[in-house]
Amino acid sequence: MKVKLDENLGKQGSEFLLSSGFDVETVVSQRLCGATDHVLIEVCRSERRCLVTLDFDFSNPVQFPPDMYAGIVVLKLPKDPTLNDILDCLRALVRAVDPSDLEGKLRIVSKMRVREYSPLR
């Protein structure tokens, strides 16, 4: 699965996902730091990459309908998070979700659980 890590997830997050079999690009490596949310998600859409971010703005399914993208994963961290908190969330994601099942879905990930957004019908 192709993912794009937002600028605040670091080299260790990228290395962990690479070692877990993900195809990883980062906002930093593509010089997208400071890009608006809409620019970032459009780049992800054009590249068919699932966005992995700490930015809770992306958890708004009205503003960013998950079915329009290759997936959105928002990591929910504790106050004053550490690198281990980020890695724990990424581990939870890898344990709980088949990479082929990210497409078109919004997931909120904490170190203890992974929630999938389901639209009301």
What does this protein look like?
The chain is an alpha/beta fold. The protein has helices at residues 10-19, 37-47, 83-96; strands spanning 2-5, 23-26, 50-53, 72-75, 106-109, 114-116. Helices cover 29% and strands 19% of the residues. The chain starts with a strand and ends in a 5-residue tail after the last strand. The relative contact order is 0.19. The model has no long low-confidence stretch (mean pLDDT 91).
Distance between the termini: 28 Å
| Low-pLDDT windows of residues | none
Q: Sum up the overall morphology in one term.
A: globular
How many individual helices? 3
Q: Compute the CA-based radius of gyration.
A: 13 Å
Share of helix among residues? 25-40%
Strand order of the biggest β-sheet: 2-1-3-4-5-6
Question: Sheet bearing the most strands, described?
Answer: 6 strands, mixed
- Structure class: alpha/beta
Mean pLDDT: 91
What's the quaternary structure here? single chain
Strand content: 15-25%
